[in-house]
Amino acid sequence: xxxxxRHKDKCEDxxxxxxxxxxxxxFFGAPHVVLLIMPEVGxxxxxxxxxxxxxxxxxxxxxxPGLGGIPQNMLGxxxxxxxxxxxxxxxxxxxxxxxxxxxxxDYPANQDRINKAPLDEGVIFHQ
Length: 127
Fold this sequence. Notes:
This protein is α+β, with helices and mostly antiparallel strands. 41% of the residues lie in helices and 17% in strands. The protein has a 3-stranded antiparallel sheet with strand order 1-3-2, with helices on both faces. The longest helix has 18 residues, at 45-62. 9% of the residues are buried.
């Protein structure tokens, strides 16, 4: 079975998608969550870019001590609720969250491996 076929089978499995969504909203059982919230500054592109770089660095830094993180864009759909519950200034924008903890290496979704495209398919080098 190819990666594409396995992914298609998962997408068509309604029960599995519902379970994945529920687990997402339960922060995948992680003991901690980081919410990445940004102020509006200019066109917001640079601030969002900076937060994205921060998030990537945070995710990479978790691996050395054996921790893991899961970026959760789905939380952005509940930004208003999250802002109200946490009493965050409505002028601030919730981009996404990251659940943090020790990964369950035996959980089936953590067994999936995605074949990566060769470097020259995603990067253009200029001399």
